């Protein structure tokens, strides 16, 4: 099958969050399936362009029209990709290459990604790569199915489009006149993009794509409710017949306790007791916590954002520290009020709390390895990847049972058996505290069961093989 994957970010070239990780692993997993030909299209951001690790050759150039605008686009092919994925970058100094900033956040983001979506279709047509399936992701490539149906249908008569929602919070809103001024689409497409007189790109994709997926099965169900859908519940309910959930995997090549170059000691499911103890001691030394092998180390690697459940953690943190014997380590950056909170907490409990307000991949790996318990009380979580990283490194998750957390962390029974972690159902600080206490009790009073639980966590298959096959199943359904 010929598959074209399009996204605004993809590790290792450019990444701001989980989407970038998925765009590293999913195309690779699809290309390992016999008979598949996979191309990945990404914007040619300044930092990719300036990175000598990514040599490219120019294969094409053409103009892209957006209303009255006419902009140059170059198609650059990455020369040193090792697996079967053909990686192409869309080059435009005007929209990407000469912008100093981060990936997102410019005032013309809508126009930038409209350009990118259109340029991807132009590039495929000119390459003569007529995919069976286009898989596009989040609002930045949401215009792909709209453009395809409106203006590229004759070039791609047999191409089906799957639109994948990684996070429904960011929908690609634009002013109403964006429709005529930038998109310049035939009037009959106004309805699918219109929401309250404005343009909503994600809505356009939901209505025009052949299939819509999201990154876990529970999140697909949750999206039917206003609480989760950020205004798109009606639109999604209407599209429920073509909406599916596929739970992400993680890159088990990178997240591998036997080879991870960031770890002081390597271990596996048979040697984790000694291995994690050594990693914990090294981690305590690195972050300035006392070397206490039998004090449970509670950890979290996260963006410090409200929807990650920071409000719950702030609400219970002091009670947890007063009532329980434990250490706490937080790694991440984000909203100032949470950065301040954890800095203050570390100052108040210098021997028990460490707050590393930074972004550091190496330290993140050492936290997954050296921690005992991983906290992830997200208010909503389309999939979540770090709970899987934690389990793979033998760190027991305590999570809010929502979205992908609910699908990847089945709860243990009252003896700590059977499941993979501890969960709480309603988004509430006391329920979170109680789940933490149950987990800590198991650690303190039934270390055998706790270790068996760690062993189960480490033995799970979180690889991309299963999800990639599920994508293939849906691709085949779409192609009839
Ligand atoms: C988004 C979601 C996260 C998901 C990731 C990859 O970042 O918030 O839950 O794991 O996308 O799909």
Report a brief summary of the structure.
Helices cover 41% and strands 19% of the residues. It is built from 20 helices and 18 strands.
Calculate the mean pLDDT score and round it: 97
Question: Which word captures the global form?
Answer: globular
Ions, cofactors and other bound molecules: alpha-D-glucopyranose
Radius of gyration: 23 Å
Number of strands: 18
Strand content: 15-25%
Strand order of the largest sheet: 3-4-5-2-1-6-7-11-12
Task: Describe the protein in words.
It is a single chain. With 480 residues, this protein is an alpha/beta fold. Helices cover 41% and strands 19% of the residues. The strands form three sheets. A nine-stranded mixed beta sheet has the order 3-4-5-2-1-6-7-11-12, sandwiched between helices. Strands 15-14-13-16-17-18 form a six-stranded parallel beta sheet, with helices on both faces. The chain starts with a strand and ends with a helix. Bound molecules: alpha-D-glucopyranose (GLC). Alpha-D-glucopyranose binds next to α1.
List the helices and strands and how they pair.
Blueprint: E1 2-6, H1 18-31, E2 37-43, H2 46-49, E3 56-66, E4 69-78, E5 86-91, H3 93-97, H4 109-127, E6 133-137, H5 143-151, E7 160-165, E8 173-174, H6 178-183, H7 190-193, E9 194-195, E10 198-200, H8 201-208, E11 211-214, H9 217-222, H10 226-229, H11 233-238, E12 243-245, H12 272-287, E13 297-301, H13 310-323, E14 327-331, H14 336-348, E15 353-356, H15 361-370, E16 373-376, H16 386-392, E17 396-400, H17 403-408, E18 422-424, H18 429-445, H19 447-459, H20 465-478
Parallel strand pairs: 1-2, 1-6, 2-5, 6-7, 7-11, 11-12, 13-14, 13-16, 14-15, 16-17, 17-18
Antiparallel strand pairs: 3-4, 4-5, 8-10, 9-10
Helix pairs in contact: 4-5, 5-8, 12-15, 13-14, 13-18, 18-19
The chain binds alpha-D-glucopyranose.
């Amino acid at each position: 099958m010929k598959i074209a994957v399009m996204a605004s970010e993809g590790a290792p070239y450019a990444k701001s969050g989980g989407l970038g990780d998925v765009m590293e692993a999913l195309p690779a997993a699809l290309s390992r399936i016999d008979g598949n030909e996979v191309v990945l299209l990404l914007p040619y951001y300044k930092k990719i362009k300036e990175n000598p690790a990514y040599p490219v050759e120019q294969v094409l150039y053409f103009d892209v029209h957006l209303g009255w605008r006419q902009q140059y686009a170059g198609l650059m092919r990455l020369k040193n990709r090792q697996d079967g994925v053909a990686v192409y970058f869309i080059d435009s100094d005007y929209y990407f290459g000469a912008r100093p900033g981060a990936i997102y956040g410019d005032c013309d983001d809508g126009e930038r990604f409209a350009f990118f979506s259109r340029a991807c279709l132009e590039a495929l047509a000119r390459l003569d790569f007529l995919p069976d399936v286009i898989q596009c992701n989040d609002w930045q490539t949401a215009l792909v199915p709209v453009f395809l149906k409106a203006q590229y249908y004759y070039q791609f008569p047999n191409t089906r489009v799957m639109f994948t929602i990684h996070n429904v919070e960011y929908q690609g809103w634009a002013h109403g006149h964006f429709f005529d001024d930038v998109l310049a689409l035939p009037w009959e497409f106004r309805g699918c993009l219109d929401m309250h007189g404005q343009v909503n790109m994600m809505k356009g994709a939901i209505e025009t794509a052949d299939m819509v997926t999201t990154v876990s099965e529970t999140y697909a169900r949750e999206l039917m409710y206003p609480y989760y859908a950020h205004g798109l519940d009606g639109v999604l309910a209407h599209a429920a017949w073509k909406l599916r959930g596929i739970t992400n995997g993680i890159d088990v090549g990178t997240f591998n306790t036997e080879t991870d170059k960031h770890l002081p000691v390597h271990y596996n499911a048979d040697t984790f007791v000694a291995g994690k103890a050594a990693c914990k001691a090294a981690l305590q030394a690195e972050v300035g916590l006392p070397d206490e092998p039998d004090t449970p180390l509670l950890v979290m690697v996260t963006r410090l954002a409200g929807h990650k459940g920071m409000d719950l953690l702030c609400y219970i943190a002091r009670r947890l520290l007063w009532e329980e014997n434990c250490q706490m380590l937080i790694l991440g950056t984000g909203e100032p009020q949470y950065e301040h909170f954890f800095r203050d907490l570390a100052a108040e409990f210098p021997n028990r709390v460490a707050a590393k307000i930074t972004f550091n991949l190496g330290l993140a790996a050492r936290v997954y390895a050296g921690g005992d318990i991983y906290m992830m009380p997200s208010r909503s979580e389309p999939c979540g990847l770090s709970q899987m990283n934690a389990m793979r490194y033998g760190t027991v998750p305590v999570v809010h049972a929502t979205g992908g957390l609910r699908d990847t962390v089945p709860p243990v029974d009252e003896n700590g058996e059977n499941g993979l972690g501890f969960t709480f159902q309603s988004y509430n600080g006391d329920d979170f505290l109680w789940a933490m206490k149950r987990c800590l009790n198991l650690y303190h009073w039934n270390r055998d069961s706790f270790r068996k639980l760690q062993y189960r966590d480490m033995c799970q298959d979180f690889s991309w093989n299963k999800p990639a096959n599920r994508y293939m199943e849906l691709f085949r359904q779409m192609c009839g």
